[in-house]
Amino acid sequence: MSAAADLARALDPVAVFRQGVLGPNGQPAEADEWQETVMRSGAPRQLILCNRQAGKSTTVGAKAVAGMLYDPGLYLIVAPTLRQSKLLFDKVAGVYKRLPDVSRIETSNKTELFLENGSQLVALPGDDDATIRGYSGPKAIYIDEASRVSDEVYAALRPMLATSGGQLIALTTPYGRRGWFYEAWEFQKDWTRTTITARDCPRITTEFLEEERTTMGEWRFRQEYLCEFVDTDEQFFSSDLIDAMVDNTLEAWA
Length: 254
Hints:
This protein is of the alpha/beta class.
């Protein structure tokens, strides 16, 4: 690769996507507009709310590879289970291995990828906050299926970024009106938000969505494809009913 081509890739993470991501036909894929925006964003705190199969994992995978190449350091992947973390890890590793003229891989296994330039990619389980402690100063933390990652695990991750200035990027479909992701999305400032529904995805047809709505039921369809925070079938009382029972004008007794 020429110096000019390498500089172009360093300046634009979308170039990594074009070189390392393949479409269903085996040809280089073109990113959607929202994917380009996410890959180019330097916002320190990002929430990505997407329907299933929109391409959020591929987007974050290319973004992570760009970071590992041109901003060497520690990159962490966390999901509700190690199996899920490894799925995103495989996306990142796959993009990296398809790129020409990159740093040599020194270590590669199912959960770790170490590069000659000093970058490290590590997949971690998110089912126990005690097992992920000990890492510090990551360049980025990627939380996959973030709406299903517990508040305790999320609380254990944030201090890792205390001195590094690294990014925290959470990607997910909704999972009810509960948990840290819902609270962050609805109420907290200092987050950059991206929403993509199935209706925004050119690869999903109207006919398929109508079939899914009929097959899976209304609330699941609205959650999985329209990215709505709806009550799950596990809740005995609806969130609207619970909210109606609370009077926020009353003062709490000491």
